[in-house]
């Protein structure tokens, strides 16, 4: 992933983004394959170095992990289209504005461990439920013990965090402020999140 210096995110910002967007693409290169195996997955970032998730036992990514435990977890969201005229201020010609896309993307290099014991899988499921449904009345996943054979759990140990936050870091404050106002006025899907990223980057 190409990251310009003005778009590079800190490790802390990158992990916070992942923690608030716990769904991404798990990419496993395997060994000697023509293409890596890619699967969408919900996960739980337990701490800065540990990610837990589970998959159907037949998911082909598990075979690739068995061949090579090095994987990449990619999380991208909060993307919005920025029309060219939005980037023109004062006496600048709106017709000469260059459209772009704002987005956040974090890649986590990890080592994957397959968890196949019933108790290990239950621990992972409990961790995910605590994250997604805190204080709910959901029964403990052990009530579905007969179905545990249908899934495999994964523990990912994070070794490297790379974050890109492309939100107008290449323009001055006046232009970023103008785009932030237009995002607020448009108020479309993801516009609020993109505006928060833009303003956060502006003050850091």
Mean pLDDT: 96
Q: SSE order, as H and E?
A: EHEEEEHEEHEHH
Total beta-strand segments: 8
The helix fraction, in percent, is: 25-40%
Q: Ranges with pLDDT <50 over ≥5 residues?
A: none
Q: What is the makeup of the main sheet?
A: 8 strands, antiparallel
Strand residue content: 25-35%
Task: Please identify the structural class as seen in this structure.
Answer: alpha+beta
User: What is the approximate shape?
Assistant: elongated
Count of runs of 4 or more consecutive helical residues? 5
**Any idea what the radius of gyration is?**
20 Å
Distance between the termini: 22 Å
How does this structure look, described?
This protein is an alpha+beta fold and about 200 residues long. Helices cover about 30% and strands about 35% of the residues. Strands 1, 2, 3, 4, 5, 6, 7 and 8 form an eight-stranded antiparallel sheet that branches. Strand 4 (about 45) and strand 5 (about 50-55) form a beta hairpin. Helix 4 packs antiparallel against helix 5 (about 190-200). The longest helix has 15 residues, at about 120-130. The model has no long low-confidence stretch (mean pLDDT about 95).
Short description:
The protein has 204 residues and is of the alpha+beta class. The chain has helices at residues 11-20, 60-67, 118-132, 173-186, 191-202, and strands at residues 8-9, 23-28, 37-42, 44-47, 50-56, 70-82, 100-115, 151-166.
